[in-house]
Design brief:
There is one protein chain. The chain is α/β, with parallel strands linked by helices. It folds into 2 domains: 4-111 and 177-302, P-loop containing nucleotide triphosphate hydrolases (Rossmann fold, 3-Layer(aba) Sandwich); 119-172, Histone, subunit A. Helix content is 54%, strand content 9%. Helix 6 crosses helix 8 and helix 10 (193-209) packs across helix 13 (245-270). The longest helix is centred in the C-terminal third of the chain and has 26 residues, at 245-270. The radius of gyration is 20 Å and the shape is globular.
């Protein structure tokens, strides 16, 4: 992790365009740390950078994995580590950009080796209600219950599975690599809530105008992880005639705003990256400020 810089923050903050201009400015390369943009297809739904942004600098781990393939933090860590090594071998800085907290932490802190899924145990857990699952997790691992998205059934089931298979709480099994975390440099970008929510609402409206319904219609089979994409279930219900277009748009806007709020909380608690409120800067000012900081940090490591 010698020449790496992180740009993290909630969805719709403007990270993709910001990072692309910074990479062009300093001749760096971007590694996406987005749990859904890594999949092929559903470009509108996952808010992948458009062709103009992608043309500004080399991008890695965007549209790399088929929707039918399962992804997890460890797979991402291995893929991202290889990309970083290749970028560094060319004498360039790797810029990690994204809002998927666990993927970011997999790079900054590493992950403990965890057990594979157990079919019989998974069947038992899947038979329980989300309320029952939450209750069990709170008893077995209250620290993890506080940190993860307790409304995300898949994550709650996996956390319980790890607790039951290992006999230890998940929170005790994450490896904190102090030498890595101390050496990691980055910024946590965000915006004032009112401005961020307005950007989210406009983006959701825009993807419908640009054809996201047709995109979902032709997406094909998605695995359990990809199926968690915000908006996928709502649009499929719209296609099935279970809700109206205004209802679908409003629900996706609300779900995205809630996700952004959780991201803000996570990054404030889980990282030591320098916070930067983009509401008080022009785009060019932010590019200049972060570029200078990147070069400064890179210079320190090269000394």
């Amino acid at each position: 992790m010698r020449r790496v810089f992180f740009i993290v923050g909630p969805t719709a903050t403007g990270k993709s365009e910001l990072a692309a201009d910074i990479a062009a400015e300093i001749d760096g390369e971007i590694v996406s740390a987005d749990a859904f943009q890594i999949y092929c297809g559903l470009d509108l739904l996952t808010a992948k950078p458009d062709s103009l942004i992608l043309a500004k600098a080399p991008h890695h781990l965007i549209g790399t994995i088929p929707l039918s393939d399962e992804m997890n933090a460890e797979k991402f860590r291995c893929m991202a580590s290889r990309a970083i090594e290749e970028i560094n071998s060319r004498g360039k800085l790797a810029i990690i950009v994204g809002g998927s907290g666990l993927y970011i932490k997999a790079l900054t802190h590493g992950l403990a080796p965890l057990p594979q899924s157990d079919r019989k145990l998974r069947e038992k857990l899947n038979a329980l209600s989300l309320t029952e699952l939450r209750s069990q997790l709170c008893k077995l691992d209250p620290a993890t219950a506080e940190k993860i998205d307790i409304k995300n059934r898949r994550r709650v089931v996996r956390a319980l599975e790890i607790c039951l298979l290992t006999g230890k709480p998940v929170s005790a099994q994450r490896i904190r690599r102090a030498s890595h975390s101390e050496a990691v440099a980055g910024v946590f970008v965000y915006r004032d809530r009112e401005q961020l929510y307005e950007r989210i609402n406009k983006r959701v409206q825009s993807i419908f105008e640009r054809g996201v319904i047709e995109e979902v219609c032709t997406a094909g089979k998605t695995n359990a992880t990809a199926s968690q994409m915000i908006g996928l279930r709502e649009i499929r219900e719209l296609i099935a005639g279970k809700k109206t277009l205004p209802q679908c748009i409003a629900e996706i806007q609300q779900a995205t705003r809630r996700y952004a709020k959780r991201q803000l909380t996570w990054f404030r608690r889980q990282t030591s990256f320098l916070p930067l409120n983009l509401s008080f800067l022009t785009h060019n000012e932010a590019v200049k400020w972060i570029s200078l900081r990147m070069l400064s940090e890179a210079g320190k490591r090269d000394d």
